[in-house]
Amino acid sequence: MALVRLRELLLRAKEGRYAVGAFSIANMEMIIGAIKAAEELKSPAILQIAEVRLNHSPLHLIGPLMIEAAKNAKVPVAVHFDHGITLEKIEEALKIGFTSVMIDGSKNNIEGNISITQQVVKEANKYGASVEAEIGRVGGSEDNTENIAVAYTDEKEAKKFYEETKVDALAVAIGNAHGVYVGEPKLNFQVLDNVNRAIDVPLVLHGGSGISAEDFKKTITLGIRKINVATATFNSVEENVRRLYELNKKVNYFELHDTEIEGAYNNVKNHIEIFGSNDKM
Ligand code: 13P
Fold first, then answer.
1. How far is the centre of ligand 1, averaged over its atoms, from the C-alpha of 229 (Å)?
2. I need a labelling partner for 260 at 20 to 30 A (CA). Which of 34, 194, 207, 235 fits?
């Protein structure tokens, strides 16, 4: 099908009342597995990588792989730069052809967050790319190096932020956190409902790993249109590989390769079914 803009995928998700999975990948095998699951389920998908992960997967190598995989997919796929921190890397992603970028200005005060987001929107517009930003603060950290405390999104602040930036997607903080949850995740649906009533923009749920199917479905009824899943896919790949070695100590490299693909495929497939984006291309 095609490489598409995030904006288009999310507007269609809004009409159809489902969410599109944004699957973090780190190598070619994970890209192949994620696309295979999306194609099999006839689902749109988002491939993404976060700036903090580029030390493992350099942008000039992984970026073109993601773009080519999207262009050749039988389903619509957006390629997204997750948790952009520096304007340099965001610009590099746009030049490579990412159809969407996130600027994470959530550590700044509201004025600082608005100002940096406006700069990114201006830049992304030159490429026709979409922009996601974050308001409030999602817990944990993208690469588990920090334990950031959750700061719930305030709907008045979110409205002001949206009116001044006109981003295409807005990530909310409702008790969700990156990485492995300590105990059961406790999402505050009231906070989400307030933001959803205050502004008409597709909302994004970060920290998808560990959230129950029931909670995912509830957030989708309250305006969540993009759901980020990273740790669960990395773990699924690792566990699949570990099982392979437990069964057979002597593993041929290409069995390892196929097993990684399968690990990513299994987790992406499972989430697409929960998010209800299957048969929506
Ligand atoms: P998890 O690692 O908790 O799935 O979070 C993913 C995420 O939100 C990426 O931005």
1. 5
2. 207
